[in-house]
Amino acid sequence: MKTNCLLLLLLLAATLPSLAQVTPVDDCESLTGWGGGGNALSLDSDAPVQGTYSIKSEGGNTERLRRTFTTPINTGIGPTELNIAYLQFSLYVSDVTKFSASGGQFEITSSGNPDTDEYNWGTASVNLRNGWNNVVLRLSAAGKQGNPNLAAINFFRYYKPINAGESVIIKIDNVRFTKGYEGSVLSGAHIFSAADDATGWSGSDAPGTDTGNKILGSASIVKTGSGTNWFTFNPAPFNTTVTEADGIVKFWLFVSDASQMNGSGSIVFSSSGQAGTDEYRWNLANQKIQNGWNHVILHLPGAVKTGNPNLSAINFFQISQPLSASITARVDEIEFYEPADVATPVPSANTLNGKVMFGYQGWFGLPTDGSPTHNWWLHWFGGAPDHANATVDMWPYLGDYPSSELVATNMVYSNGSPAKLFSSYNYNTVDQHFKWMREHEVDGVFQQRFLQNFRTGDSRVPRHFEKVIENVQTASLKYGRVYAIMYDLSGADATSTEAVIADWKRLVDEMGVTSESNYLWHKGRPLVALWGLGLASSPDATAERSDKLVKWFRDGDPTDPTDDPKYRATIMGGLNNNWRTHTAEWLAVYDQLDVISPWSVGRYSNESGANAFAINSVRPDMAYLQPKNIDYMPVIFPGFSWFNLQTVRNNPSAAIKNSIPRNGGSFLWQQSQNVINEGANMIYLAMFDEVDEATSFFKMEKFADHTPKGGDTWFLSLDADGFDLTPDWYMGIAGYTKKVLAGKATNSLSVPLFPNALSTTAGQPLPVTLVSFAAHTEQNNALLTWRTSQETNSSHFEIQRSADAKSFITIGKINSHQNSNANNDYRYTDTNLPAGRFYYRLKMVDLPSDGHSANGAFAYSSIATVEIERSIAVNVFPNPAANVLAIQSDARILQVDIVNSAGRKMHSSTPGKPSFELNIATWPSGIYVVKVDGVERKIVKP
For residue 446, what are the CA distances in angstroms to 487, 492, 687, 690, 735? Predict the structure, then answer.
């Protein structure tokens, strides 16, 4: 099957068999070569994943499975292909609760033994559940010991400690290596060239074919030399079938040394048989070409167009780039693709089943909106449009909005240009949003409708939000998406029930919401959502009044002569996550609902918290509702931050930057994987456009340097957690969630996209030539050693550590030799570590010509790992604690997180010492969970 491990993986949706390179390792039909580390080993015929048998290991010993190969396996994976290569297998676990807290490992080696010439993955990176799991381990994410030879793999092992006295059944099936596209999903691709044959190819350095280093098919086209014209291809006229408005070109490009690219290069397609006439042209430098294989994705609307190129008769392709020295370059699999027509099925409007829906605020306004003009910066600022009044944390990506509709703020970017913003009042804004939804196959939106939208005396407010509804109606119909009204009742009071009834009648009668073909129905009626039942703070928002509202939507009011069956609706309730503990009066209201959707935003703050929420909330919620025939729609969210909003509100204790990190999408994907595994068949994504609390999915700015500067300005960008992501990264994950729910893609254990580690110098020369980088355990310390063979204009090395191989912190710095052609050895010791698995990398920083390293170019090394095994004591006292909380450990404390009973993170720090104190005098009374390097303690604040 064909899978793109980069973002465009998400746009695609059908299976193309036999296009990936798959190297079988073991079909698990025989015990030959298998060992179980003392556990009972057998062939098992009970529901294997494929074939007749799986390998079964039963017992309590740590080593679960090992496989030695008399004949080494040539995986066919080259050293530059690790980012598109995987070890895959199916793994069955009878009871994950019997696993010890100690880490385990998956290993492959070419030495015939563990720990030598090895790739390894910590079991903590794979969220195993009871039953069969699809394990997908990317080679570039592996730890590495020695020099494993991927042409001669002869050993596999899985070990994981089990709780004392316990026994677990583990089964394994269908072990294989895959390379290129893995997972499913290219539909509607029109192959311009498979690049399997050199016929029609030319260039400065006489291109030929390479059958060894390729992505797909039998070969790639390769050239070696320093000529400017890398590749030229002159085929017969080719009908791309794509349109200029939406067409995409994709191909794979290998570069051996991107640092030799010197000056401006280009990529050209034309219908004139040559460059310069009737052509589309892109700047090669804008593609951020790195060493190794790159998946180049070009959008036709972004090309520079000359003349009148005919997309039905493209007969010329060229890559040209001046070089400083000779390189090897390869190109493979050139395709045209039209995402809007082939990858986006129109969702049915008669059921919520199978739907993935965004919450849509549409609450952003500009001074130029309306007539008379609204003269406001609705939801952008709490006053003048400057940094001191900003109420949003995440800065949107603005490249796709009509520039004529953007309005300048008082803020500027680093280049001095004005920072501008969009308005949801403008149709083109909403049109763009729904176009993105179609591109990523998300079904539609719950259009938010707050009580103040129709109860305020400020005429601008209803004018704005009714215009937004009109925009949503038009755009959803245009792009084949669905929508439903969601009332937010968090501000409910004594008159809210009557106000909502009157508003719904007006929406039905005057705006025709339920009569449109794209308004979402469920269970035979239009769907309306009532969010915030049981959540309002007003004592007048009683269960009795909510009961009246629910009954009116369901049954009507026979005493009202204006009532009509057209107002009846299927009712979805948005509840708090603890709704099952509410009073009997409220439970009686909830039992009348057709769909229940508990709020999860802020109820947990990391992947482990999401796992606990799935077990302790999602699972029992669904069990409670199943016999009542009430549907369940879980909520998942990408992250959270409201620093600017709380700063404007003068609430500094809550003004925490990036309080729930996104971690490159792994936090969101863990939630998606969890709720689907628990059996959800509908999912609510919170929210499409809420940059106020940084839960937004839509296109956002990639780099902090691309957000407004000046004063105390701070905005959250996608690089905050150390990843280089495309602006639509989170819409991509949303779309993949839809694919999994629809059965078109595998619910993989890790993020189905692979974010690049952040580097501001992609395609630039490394400051050093790194020969080796390794990590070794010495008692409770990690010894890091590395060697360089050349250092050119190098400043220093920053040593970085992570507990999850995702979020890294700098723990040390060592100066380099700046300029050297000799071998240089370095070492660094990270001392007194707690028990656990730790990941290390080097940030290699160059020295700019001005002599200061603060703004130097940099690159990262590969990741090395160590495992520390020790028992530590953690003391948290006093308990209860009223003013000062003391935390002590036998080891140096690396990470402390404290959350309240609602799951809101109250404190996070990296002390780096065995004890410290924290002032909690101003914290509210309640129960808090203190997590110290994975060890949890509970305290009471009286």
Answer: 9, 19, 10, 13, 17
Place of tokens 């969210």: 637
DSSP 498: H
User: Whole-prediction pTM value?
Assistant: 0.56
Query: For 720-776, what is each residue's pLDDT tens digit?
Result: 877 777 788 999 999 989 988 887 777 766 666 644 444 333 223 344 677 778 888
The domain of 894 spans 874-941
Last residue of a domain, one of 820, 838, 867: 867
CA–CA gap between residue 279 and residue 241 (Å, rounded): 16
Q: What is the DSSP string of 553-597?
A: HHH--TT-TT--GGG--EEEEEE-TTGGGS-HHHHHHHTT-SEEE
Q: How many Å apart are CA 674 and CA 606, to the nearest integer?
A: 13
Distance (Å, whole) CA 702 – CA 723:
9
Min mean pLDDT across 148-162, 692-706, 751-765, 783-797 is at: 751-765
Q: Within this chain, do residues 780 and 830 fall inside the same structural domain, yes or no? A: yes
For the purposes of burial, counting CB atoms within 10 Å of the CB of 300, is it exposed (0-12), middle (13-18) or buried (19 or more)?
Answer: buried
pLDDT tier, 21 (very low <50, low <70, confident <90, very high otherwise):
low
CB-neighbour burial class of residue 822 (10 A; exposed 0-12, middle 13-18, buried 19+): exposed
Q: Which of 696, 598, 682 is nearest to 638 (CA)?
A: 696
pLDDT tens digit sequence for 439-458: 899 999 999 999 989 999 99
- CA 49 vs CA 19, 22, 91, 172, 894: distances in Å: 21, 17, 9, 9, 41
Taking the CA atoms of 232, 237, 243 and 248 in sequence, report the sign of the dihedral they define: negative
User: What is the CB neighbour count within 10 angstroms for residue 416?
Assistant: 7
CB 712 within 8 A of CB 388: yes
Question: What is the C-alpha R_g of the chain?
Answer: 29
Domain boundary among 814, 843, 867: 867
In this prediction, residue 854 carries a pLDDT of 42
Which position has the token pair 């010495």?
778
Closest by CA position to 153, among listed 206, 76, 93, 212: 76
The CATH number of the domain holding residue 900 is: 2.60.40.3080
CA angle 802, 897, 671 (to 5 degrees): 75
Tell how strand 105-109 and strand 407-412 pair up.
Answer: unpaired
Give alpha helix (H) positions in 654-785. 666-677, 729-741
Report the helix count and the strand count for the chain, using DSSP H and E: 12, 53
